[in-house]
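Could you show me just one protein sequence together with its fold in token form as a worked example?
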Amino acid sequence: TELGHGTFIRGLETTCTYDPENEEFILNSPTLTSYKWWPGGLGHSCNYAIVLAQLYTQGIRCGIHPFIVQLRDSETWMPMPGIKIGEIGSKMGMNSVNNGYLAFNNVRLPRMQMLMKNAKVHKDGTYEKSPNEKLTYSTMILTRVLIVKSLVTSFLKQSATIAVRYSAIRRQSELKSGEREPQILDYQTQQYKLFPVIASSLVYVCAAKWLWDKFSAVTSKLERVDLDQLPELHAMACCLKAVGTADASISVTSCRLACGGHGYMNCSNFPNIYSLITATETYEGENTVLLLQTARFLIKSYETIQMGNNVSTLEMMYLENYNSLKQFPWKTTLDCMTNAFFQVAGSKIDDCYFTIKRLIDSGMAQEDAWNRTSIKLTQASEAHCRAFVISTYIKTLKTNQFSPELMDVLTQLGELICAQWILCRVGDFLQHSNLKPINVHSIQCLLEDSLERIRPNAVGLVDSFDIPDEVLDSALGAYDGNVYERLLAEANKSPLNKEPVNRSFELYIKPFLKSNV
């Protein structure tokens, strides 16, 4: 990432020019916008970096390549000659991480400090291309995979655990006059805020497992330069990162609000969790840009079908027959709802494809036609992602041996998340699936029934995540349930409570009270 460029890697401005006489590369930051910006630990902690720069050799620009660069002296920690380095300043969160900026002024690197597993620069400056340029970009997929696998699922689980445990302790108002105040977890509105977060954490766990297995399978073939499945992996990593982080951010906020004013306290740990998860919506690819990258793969896949060919992966085969699913009557079952998600995704991709085609046929440039359709393209990518997430969860239920009791609970969670996602986008399902207006009531009933059936197991479900108190770091969500004792203990740690009368009284309040104002 540079000050002037983020997701658009090909637009990076840092240059690395080969000097064959000395067998060295010369690294430069030619503009202010070419400053490297954001890498964690760069400000003060790191003394080496892998730097992506535009390679020039024999007067030819050869594209983005990686170079290993020493930033600081290993003894004194002072910046190396030609290195300008610093910390970028305060952020919305993660301020314990010294994110940095970096600029180069004629920094010379030995030739062998170019990472040359794929592309190479020989001693005389001859450039040897990579067998496939996609190999260079494949490593960038890993971080997006890990965001889904480790961060999205983790923060969903943490937030649900804190809020559900708190809601089991907190009592508020009267449902019936004269009776004890109920646990707020018994209120349907509270359940609606929290139980879908539990369900989301599980469906994204299943999707993340598929993504990790896919990544492992695809990268194991890269040594043989077998790149057939790399485009699909890239597309799925992009949309799962985009949709997953967006959903997680909304879910964390929902859990915080479910805890009322106490959720606003730092000791609830929601402010910290929110600052961490919301950052994932922009780093390693801004979410809208990633959805558009997924859309390119979807449109190409649909074009393949329109030309009379079959798509090569199971995950895309629904594009060949999604319309046929619409002829079946609606049933509020997991299978029927899963099919509806595919109908919506397929119809939205179809709409995008023919919109772009119509604009191009009318004389518009392809790039302009794409931009004119970009809102619908992001919506199509999101629909594809949700269909994939739901179907992966259902496949997990069908292909694993669970006890009848556990299967019942997992099915309830699947029905809940399906119902919620459909009702939140009911216009799409009425327009693009076999759902009819008369069927919407049955989905609302399923959602409400799911909440009621999940309630007895809600605390047990979040306890099953087995997150240690040290990780939760929350006065509201500790396993022992001592919410109020912990809140008071945290309050007493405030520096303002070190003395009964703060010095501001003597300095400002007392003189004011004794004045004639």
